[in-house]
Structures are given as C-alpha cells and as structure tokens.
Amino acid sequence: MVASVNAAQGFDPSKPAMTELKDGVYQYSQFFYNSLVVITDEGVIVTDPSGEARSKMMRKEISKLTDQPVKKVIYSHDHFDHSRGGQIFKDEGAEFITQEKCTELLSRDLEARVVQPDITYKDHYSVKLGGKQVDLHYYGPNDGDCMSIIHMPTDQVLMGVDWHLPGYVNEPYRLTAHNYVAIINTFERVLNELEFDTVLSGHMPASSPEAFREDYRFNKALFDAVWKGMQEGKTTEELKEAVRLPEFSHWRGYKENLPAHVERMSYSIWHGN
Ligand SMILES: [Zn+2]
Prior knowledge:
Residues 32-203 form the Metallo-beta-lactamase domain. This protein has 273 residues and is α/β, with parallel strands linked by helices. 34% of the residues lie in helices and 23% in strands.
C-alpha cells in the first residue's frame, strides 16, 4: 500500500511482526495487514487470515508463543483479501465467526479460498476463551455491509479494519465499498459506547486513541466541507477542486488522493451509502 516509502526506510512488509499490546494480546503484522491475536491457556483467537501465505506465517509465529491450537477465527468483514486463507486454522479445528450479512458475500468466492463461517450474529457477539473476551458489534453499514467492530472490554483494546486508517488518505480504488456517512456513525458510536486505551488498525503499522480521534476528525472535517459545498450548490467536480483540509496535509496520500475522497463523500451524502 505504501511500499516505496517504507522500503526507503528499510522496512520489509513481508517480514512477520508479532507485537504484544497487552498480556496475551498481540498485533500480527505482515504484507500491510494486521490481525488481532489473543493467546490463552485454552486456545488462541485470531482475526482475518488475509491470504494463505500470511496465515501460514502467522501460524508459525503463534507456535513460538504457545502450543495451544487456534480455536476461533473472526472475520472482520467479507472482503476476500482479508477473509481468504483460513484453511490452516480450520484443519486444527477452529470455529469461524462473522456478522450474518457476510455469509452470502463470503460464499461468492469463485476460487473457494474462504472457509465459510460456523457462527454468525446479528447485533452483538462475545467470543470467550480462556478468560479473554473479544466482543463483536454490528453498527450497520461501513466499509461494506457486514463490518464487525472488534473490542475487548476487559483489555480495553479496539480494532478498526478498513474504516480506521490513521494518518493515511487511502487509495481511490479502495473506496468502492466505503460508506462515508455510515463510517462517521460508526466512529461516533464507538467513541460514545466503547472504552479503550489501545487501538489497532487493520492496515496501518500502529494506532492509538489519539490517532483514532484524529481519524474521526478527518472524516468529520471532510463531511463538513463537502456538505457545506453541496448546500452552496457546488457540483462534485467543483468540490474535488476546491476542498482542502490543511489540518491533515501531512497525512500520507493527502495531495494525490483527497479529491477521490471528496467525490466518495459527495456520493455517500447524495445516495446515503
Ligand atoms: Zn482492508
């Protein structure tokens, strides 16, 4: 996603990185994808395999920390780049969990590389294992229609996949399912309802409660600017030229990608999705 910048800094995205965030709670990073990994005396919980090569390496890294099997796999959402590659965990008996609206979408993988879910939920589901708890909340449409908000209430850990990309104005081609109006609602519900002191992004190397709030401000500032322009009768094309968010000009991709976000926000307001 930002390979050239990181290569210049000597960062190798293919190298697996397991970072301990809390007791037994880890972020596994590889190929610009992050998984939450929770290790307990009764088994392991992971999110998003994100491809066969990555899940195999993740399995190896988990084995360095525990002999316990992976018992639960959580799909944050339906997109195949996150959900493919879970067979290695299925083979050791893991149970696959996701929001119910993902089921039909996950079944559409023409290459059949997505392990189909065993458990689905509607509004809320708690994954409990070995004294750890990972809650899944469905707050409505987001990036796609079946995004789970991942939260550990006791460990105060929050994970936002695809809707939380701190410090990064994402590439235009990744915005096709990005429901900006809904994502602002998600941010507001999370900020009002969930307690957390540790944050993971699905893709960015690191986040924090401060970075999460800054990301919310970016979303809100974009909404406010586009909304105001629409009220003044400006077209989407005019807004793409005119809207500037100087508070975020230091964000990666700001200059090249902001117009596409203005456009997506405009259609999101226009269509409601
Ligand atoms: Zn993603």
